[in-house]
Specification:
The chain is an alpha/beta fold. The chain has 11 helices and 9 strands. The chain folds into 2 domains: 10-205, 2-enoyl-CoA Hydratase, Chain A, domain 1; 209-269, Orthogonal Bundle (Lyase 2-enoyl-coa Hydratase, Chain  A, domain 2). Helix 1 links the parallel strand 2 (18-23) and strand 3 (55-60).
């Protein structure tokens, strides 16, 4: 799936340390259907399994990052037998989970009207940046639907209280509000600036130990919401002890003391 075939609805490039995955259905504002969902799952699976890829940038072509689910596709799935309908919903859930659990940091660059499932993609990313023109909504209720499949990921990102409001009203909200509630971490005056920042952050990832980055993400996913008790603290102590003793940890500390680059850094990493 690697390459740059612009005829595809999901375009990928995993040839360097910073992999890119692009939604490429601009005539439909990158609205997701079954084909796009399957290709996104395949793309994130490939990114996870490509050793040379250190970070992944997810973006969309045209006027919108992702307008959510394709209405025509959703209408069709609603008329299918229960098992087929549920299977389609499960495919979306699997794809979103592949983003959240990707062992490489995922940076989403969001712009334009981003609705429903597009907000779900944003919530699943480790880092979410936006252009100032980004506009968000959980528009499902206006169609007589609910944001059920994306809800676990969104609630994890913004918390239950804001989810209760935004899921039920379907109201549109700006990039400024999205930052305030934790859906995105920052926004910029235009899309180009957002992309520049995304690459700067990806380059920072490339300077760090590859397995340390993977384990740092696991720390957050595994520890979030757990009570701070002796079991948690014992787990945390065990993890840092393992990192200190690891070949990567030993190499990193030696490189620091010897005032040289660690082995995983190339000259272009800065």
């Amino acid at each position: 799936m690697s390459g740059s075939d612009t005829s595809d609805i999901v375009v990928t490039d995993f040839s360097g340390e910073i992999g890119t995955i692009g939604l490429n259905r601009p005539e439909r504002r990158n609205a997701m259907n079954a084909e796009m969902i399957a290709k996104l799952l395949a793309a994130f699976t490939e990114a996870a399994e490509t050793p040379s890829v250190r970070a992944v940038i997810l973006s969309g072509s045209g006027q919108s990052f992702c307008a959510g689910g394709d209405i025509s596709w959703m209408k069709t799935t609603g008329t299918e037998a229960d098992d087929a309908n549920t299977r389609d919903a499960g495919g979306l859930a699997d794809m979103l989970l592949s983003i959240r659990n990707c062992p490489k940091p995922v940076i989403a660059v969001v712009h334009g009207p981003t609705m429903g499932g597009g907000v779900g993609l944003t919530a699943c990313a480790d880092i979410a940046l936006a252009a100032k023109d980004a506009l968000f909504a959980f528009s499902e209720v206006r169609l007589g639907l609910t944001p059920a499949t994306i809800s676990p990921f969104v609630i994890e990102a913004i918390g239950a209280r804001w989810a209760r409001r935004l899921f039920q009203t379907g109201e549109r909200f700006t990039a400024d509000i999205a930052r305030r509630i934790g859906l995105i971490q920052d926004y910029y005056d235009d899309l180009q600036l957002a992309h520049i920042k995304a690459y700067e952050l990806a380059m920072l990832v490339c300077q760090a130990g590859p397995t340390a980055v993977r384990d740092a993400k696991s720390l957050v996913l595994d520890f979030a919401g757990r009570p701070i008790d002796r079991e948690l603290l014992s787990d945390a102590a065990s993890r840092i002890a393992q990192r200190r003793a690891s070949a990567e940890g030993q190499e990193g500390t030696r490189a620091f003391l010897e005032k040289r680059r660690p082995s995983w850094q190339s000259d272009k990493d800065g």
